[in-house]
Design a protein that fits this description.
Elements lengths: L10 H15 L6 H13 L3 H12 L9 H14 L6 H13 L7 H13 L11 H8 L4 E5 L7 E5 L5 H17 L11 E3 L4 E3 L6 H8 L1
Helix pairs in contact: 1-2, 1-3, 3-4, 4-6
Length: 219
């Protein structure tokens, strides 16, 4: 394989590095940066996505300490993977079979992660950016992020979003209602848009853009 971006070597060598990262994940006190590094490599080198899914399925099949720190870290990375990448159809079928097996222990943390992952796989369409450090933290707890949207002429709105929430969904479901009620615009024909603003620029957010990707760019 030809060298990839970010000074990557061959796919074979990068796959070995990722395997070593997964081994390190078992005992890592703060696994978030390591998880983000694995996700970034998969984003830059898509052929490795299936490899990591298969390795994670292997690591979470009959682990030596079910529910232990290492086992949970693998499930948490699998959760982040499911919100970022879709595996190929054969690997997806294999993964779903693995998730279904967790129903044997319905009250376990592994079963809860499996349920979350199964739902995420039905929504994931691919990401422009890997999850931010904040997003990884909330995914590890199977929670949503809180996104603050500043509205003209009204106080800022706090909106709960997932890894799959688009700008259009936020605009239609929450922000628009706030503006309509607070500014008395129920009869107005105007449309609303979301903008991302940094120190250097301000630009509209496309309706199909994932808000989680916008937050990652700010990070």
């Amino acid at each position: 394989a030809a060298p990839g971006p970010h000074s990557y070597t061959t796919l074979r060598d990068e796959a070995v590095k990722l395997f070593n990262s997964l081994q390190q994940l078992e005992s890592e006190r703060d696994p978030v940066p390591l998880m983000q590094g694995v996700l970034q490599t998969c984003l830059d080198l898509p052929p490795l996505v299936d490899e990591i899914y298969c390795q994670l399925v292997k690591q979470t099949t009959e682990p030596p300490a079910p529910g232990g720190q290492g086992d949970l870290h693998y499930w948490q990375l699998l959760t982040c993977m499911s919100c970022t990448f879709l595996p190929s159809p054969p690997v997806l079928r294999f993964l779903r079979f693995h998730l279904d097996r967790q129903s044997r222990f319905p009250t376990s943390e592994m079963a809860k992660y499996a349920c979350f992952i199964r739902e995420a796989l039905g929504k994931t369409k691919g990401r422009e950016c890997v999850p931010s450090l904040e997003e990884i933290l909330v995914l590890m707890r199977r929670q949503e992020m809180i996104c603050t949207v500043h509205c003209p002429g009204a106080p800022a709105c706090s909106v709960a979003i997932s890894s799959h929430t688009t700008a259009e969904e936020v605009r239609a479901a929450a922000v628009a209602r706030e503006l309509v009620s607070r500014l008395g615009l129920s009869q107005s024909p105007n449309l609303f848009a979301l903008y991302e603003q940094s120190r250097r620029r301000e630009q509209p957010v496309g309706s199909t853009t994932l808000l989680a990707d916008v937050l990652t760019r700010f990070e």
